[in-house]
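User: Sequence recovery, please. Input:
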């Protein structure tokens, strides 16, 4: 435990400041595929009863038309966020029930049809809607459509804004308030890169996938059964190099020394042509197939396990918001969906995420040299591919260390945060959440990835059959306790209002799409 961490935590634990640690904001974005009763990818369009995927505040689509995304607001209590997520699930499931569809329970997709039969998300005829669709067409030509069907959970997190002036004053920092806050979030991100392998061990839940997902591409996976491929000690194949693979992005490593260097890295990537994409071109037969031929079409194409974020204004690009107003929160993007949980995540995991991210924010975070960056990436990939291997070694400060030893030392440091957060509370919820993760380190069979494989072996079923079985169980869970008439009416009204908002956007359209996309390109 560093002196800096001890001092910062002691400062925040003082009676006058303790409430600030309970004012962290949490938010969740959960992706999930729509499937038919046989477990096949839904070929239906986004249902109007769910509202407009373009303008609905809580229900949208991600890369594929069949890939729903549920978005919560933010709250200080993780339980409140999970409660909101459950309500959105119940409403969406009630719509899907009428259409005889289910929500796929796993991160890795169901058995997929031919690429031509995987529908790209559609957002209507407004320029902003068409831009979102063209961006996804670009992802299809760059990475293939199967990759667009991978689902995950994004966890949004911020500390109370009042924390940063307090830490700034104690550090006697010369940076402005905005720059100090951004610098601290960059330090959080650097520490996240150091320690995120632990999240893969504890919460990775994709050690197996459907054989058809790889489209006969070469791989190093082992055969589990006729329809399933796996790695025996893997935790998260979703986050392995089987996920998004891009030669264009291979040389793109945004610098996390400071916010300005991070912005420079992404600005260069979204404005630098990539020859293979240039050969494809932006249009085919008069139709747009990608926004541009650069390394990245837009900033969000960069595939990272965590992102610095700032709420954008209408029409504002993410890098502009960060440059103008600094980092507001972070978005953790590496969490698998737990197929045993109806929401894919539970309160114990959410509370542990709080401990983990507070630790990353308060702990000393020196800049990462080239060797350090390499070690972080290697540790992460080692754990996603073989994190449950007995006596697995990781690299820390130039030396090998057993995963279990390093994990326990980190959990020991989280203990002090959990004790502070549980002060004055009837239940020691954060310490209980921490104890749940300690048990996984002590007994690997308790990890979600181990439990998935155990179910497949015990029941002698394929991954596709297991995930369909879980999907049906989750649907039964939601349908046994439907929304109240009042909440159902609330969500129905939201859907109708979003459809009206999309129609208004389309009716007010004046600028041609070609001019719109040119203006967007020039707005860097």
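Assistant: Recovered sequence (524 residues):
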């Amino acid at each position: 435990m560093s002196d800096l961490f001890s001092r910062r935590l002691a400062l925040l634990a003082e009676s006058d400041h303790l409430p600030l640690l309970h004012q962290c904001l949490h938010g969740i974005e959960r992706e999930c595929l729509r499937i038919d009763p046989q477990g096949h990818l839904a070929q239906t369009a986004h249902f109007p009863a769910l509202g407009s995927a373009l303008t609905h505040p809580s229900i949208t689509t991600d890369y594929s038309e069949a890939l729903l995304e549920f978005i919560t607001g933010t709250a200080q209590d993780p339980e409140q966020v999970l409660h909101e997520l459950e309500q959105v699930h119940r409403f969406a499931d009630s719509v899907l029930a009428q259409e005889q569809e289910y929500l796929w329970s796993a991160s890795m997709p169901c058995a997929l049809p031919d690429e031509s039969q995987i529908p790209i998300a559609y957002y209507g005829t407004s320029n902003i809607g068409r831009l979102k669709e063209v961006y996804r067409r670009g992802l299809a030509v760059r990475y293939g459509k199967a990759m667009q069907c991978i689902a995950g959970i994004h966890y949004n997190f911020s500390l109370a804004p009042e924390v940063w002036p307090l830490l700034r004053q104690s550090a006697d920092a010369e940076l402005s308030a905005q720059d100090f806050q951004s610098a601290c979030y960059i330090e959080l991100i650097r520490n996240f890169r150091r320690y995120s392998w632990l999240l893969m061990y504890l919460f990775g839940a994709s050690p197996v996938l459907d054989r058809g997902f790889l489209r006969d591409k070469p791989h190093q996976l082992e055969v589990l059964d006729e329809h399933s491929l796996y790695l025996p000690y893997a935790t998260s194949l979703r986050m392995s190099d089987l996920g998004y693979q891009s030669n264009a992005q291979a040389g793109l490593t945004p610098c996390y020394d400071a916010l300005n260097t991070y912005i420079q890295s992404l600005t260069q990537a979204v404005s630098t042509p990539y020859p293979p994409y240039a050969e494809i071109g932006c249009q085919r037969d008069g139709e747009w197939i990608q926004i541009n031929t650069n390394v990245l079409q837009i900033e969000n194409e960069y595939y990272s396990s965590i992102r610095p974020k700032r709420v954008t204004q209408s029409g504002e690009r993410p890098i502009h918001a960060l440059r103008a107003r600094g980092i507001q929160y972070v978005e953790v993007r590496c969490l698998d969906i737990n197929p045993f949980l109806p929401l894919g995540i539970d309160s114990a995991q959410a509370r542990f995420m709080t401990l983990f991210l507070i630790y990353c924010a308060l702990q000393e975070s020196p800049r990462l040299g080239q060797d350090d960056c390499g070690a972080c990436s290697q540790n992460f990939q080692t754990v996603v591919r073989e994190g449950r291997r007995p006596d697995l070694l990781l690299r820390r400060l130039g030396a090998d260390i057993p995963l279990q030893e390093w994990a326990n030392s980190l959990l020991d440091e989280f203990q002090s945060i959990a004790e502070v957060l549980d002060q004055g509370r009837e239940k020691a919820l954060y310490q209980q959440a921490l104890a749940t993760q300690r048990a996984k380190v002590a007994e690997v069979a308790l990890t979600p990835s181990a439990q998935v494989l155990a179910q497949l072996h015990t029941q002698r079923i394929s991954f596709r059959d297991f995930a369909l079985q879980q999907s049906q169980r989750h649907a039964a869970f939601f349908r046994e306790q439907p929304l109240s008439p009042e909440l159902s009416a609330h969500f129905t009204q939201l859907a109708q209002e979003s459809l009206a908002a999309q129609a208004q956007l389309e009716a007010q359209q004046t600028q041609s799409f070609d001019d719109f996309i040119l203006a967007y390109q020039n707005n860097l």
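The longest strand covers residues 25-35.
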